[in-house]
Amino acid sequence: MICNNLSINEKGHLCFEGQDTVTLAKTYGTPLYLMDADRIRERCRTYQAAIRKAFGERANTLYASKAASFRAIYRIMMEEGMGVDVVSSGEIYTAFSVGFPMERAYFHSNNKTDADVAFAMEHGVGYFVVDNREELDAIEYFAQKKGIRQKVLLRLTPGIDPHTYEAVSTGKVDSKFGSAIETGQADEITAYALGLSHVELSGFHCHVGSQVFDSDIFLRSAAIMLHFVAEMKQKYGFVTRELDLGGGYGVRYLEEDPQIDIAQNIIKVGEAVKEQCSALGIELPDIRMEPGRSIVADAGMTLYTAGTVKRIPGYKNYVSVDGGMTDNPRYALYRSAYTVLLANRANDKGKTFRCSLVGRCCESGDILQENVELPADVTRGDLVAVLTTGAYNYSMSSNYNRIPRPPVVLLEQGGATVAVRRETFEDICRNDI
Ligand SMILES: *Cc1c(COP(=O)(O)O)cnc(C)c1O
Questions:
Q1: Bridge partner list, 412
Q2: CA 209 and chain centroid, separation
Q3: Domain match, 259 and 282 both
Q4: Are the beta carbons of 291 and 61 closer than 8 angstroms?
Q5: Domain limits at 250?
Q6: Lining residues, ligand 1, CB within 6 Å
Q7: Angle at which helices 133-146 and 114-122 pack, to 10 degrees?
Q8: Which secondary-structure segment (H or E) carries 428?
Q9: Which of these, 268, 275, 356, lies nearest to 311 by C-alpha position?
Q10: pLDDT digits (tens, 9 = 90+) for 246-268
């Protein structure tokens, strides 16, 4: 199977984290998000061990919480000693509400409003990852009012095209994120930050994109960043204390996707970075990495009940499920690939037919996946599993068509607990007057 937290039991039912998905679907209803907390913790520990081995004890991993953001996730990250990336006041609020140590929170976003800046400072966010000069002015203003010096990293674009999908590529010079090194704007904003009295420049950040499989991308962006660090030392006497190399390691959605050894990769980046630091005559900064997808993606699965099965002879077949783009908009957004199985008949090796797996929304684009092979006798009531949905599914979900969001059930050590309750119709109308 695509991931080792999947198995099939003697009844032919798909199991996740060793638990029978048919039983889970009966207990919690469908559609249903499952999250394997054991897997999430295992991934955190892999990153933490590797990053410390590669860069020393002061290095740390930040979980990019936009991948999956709800209270239980921040509790897990707190317990695992991780930092977190947050990208909005809503994520800050969620992390803060469970007592997450906010000095380990890094606040991203290309457009932080004044209200966001004030809110983040009130909640003790450790670092702002600054996108632009206007943001620096706002930080200076609010930090002065509060009588603090706010630590910041500057987000830079190293000018690398990670050859991933356009929509998730962020490190190119023409990106909406950060300041470009190539155009001299990174240098300018560094000088500007150094001149502010309530801003404490700790270092720099880059993130070249998502779903990156080529480790060379990280080596190249780290090299560009280190050259910049050396230049800033020479030009302004500025010593970079923190360097954030971003996230973006790819995960397997399909059997044919490559498998990357993340620990091995980080060690390789570590060797190159240490070598370059000594060649450039700079101290090794405290390194940060900020993976999102690769921490939670294969810890997730979505279960649906099949409904309408439509065969249009000579054209195509449709299998409709009781969820759709409201709980997983990624195919609609990026044509993302997913592996789909019949969870109640996972061993069924009979005749298959090719179909489009579609949702229940009033929208032709409400497609979960095209060209799915399911048993030819798939019928209303079968249980459909979409694998690897832990990242960017719940966090991108919506109430389009007034469809309530599914619950998130955490599987841990053979037990199951509800981490996010299923929305009710009352929830849907909560803010209606
Ligand atoms: C989205 C994002 C990440 C995480 O990317 P993944 O592909 O989920 O690992 C890290 N850093 C920044 C700045 C991001 O925007």
A1: 415
A2: 11
A3: yes
A4: yes
A5: 108-291
A6: 64, 66-67, 85, 108, 207, 210, 246-248, 290-294
A7: 40
A8: helix 425-428
A9: 356
A10: 998 999 999 999 989 999 999 99
